[in-house]
């Protein structure tokens, strides 16, 4: 089975508004042990170093 190709999303940093590329992990964004909890990923802004989390459905 092949994996779908997930292109990076471009998100604006909430601190300085620089564009940050983030990849959405495979699978559903809701699920796991807690079916109502959103899945997320952490990333850092390459401009100001601000660390933030991205959540997805």
Computed CA radius of gyration, to the nearest angstrom = 13 Å
Biggest sheet record: 3 strands, antiparallel
Number of helices: 0
User: How many strand segments?
Assistant: 5
Counting helices, strands and paired strands, the structural category is: mainly beta
Instruction: Give me the side-by-side strand order of the main sheet.
Output: 3-4-5
Order of helices and strands: EEEEE
Q: State the share of residues found in helices, binned by percent.
A: under 10%
- What is the percentage of strand-forming residues? over 45%
* Low-pLDDT residue spans: none
What's the average pLDDT?
Answer: 78
Number of domains: 1
Spatial shape: elongated
Distance between the termini: 23 Å
What can you see in these coordinates?
- This protein is mostly beta strands and 57 residues long.
- It has one domain (9-56).
- Helix content is 0%, strand content 47%.
- It is built from no helices and five strands.
- It has strands at residues 9-12, 19-22, 30-31, 34-44, 51-56.
- The strands form two sheets. The chain has a three-stranded antiparallel sheet with strand order 3-4-5, with no helix packed on it. The protein has a two-stranded antiparallel ribbon with strand order 1-2.
- Strand 4 and strand 5 form a beta hairpin.
- The chain is elongated and about 35 Å long.
- It starts with 8 loop residues before the first strand and ends with a strand.
- The mean pLDDT is 78.
């Amino acid at each position: 089975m092949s994996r779908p190709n997930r292109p990076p999303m471009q998100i604006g940093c909430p601190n300085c508004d620089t564009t940050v590329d983030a990849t959405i992990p495979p699978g559903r964004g809701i699920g796991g042990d807690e079916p109502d909890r959103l899945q997320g990923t952490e990333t850092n802004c390459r401009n100001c170093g601000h660390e933030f989390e991205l959540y997805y459905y």
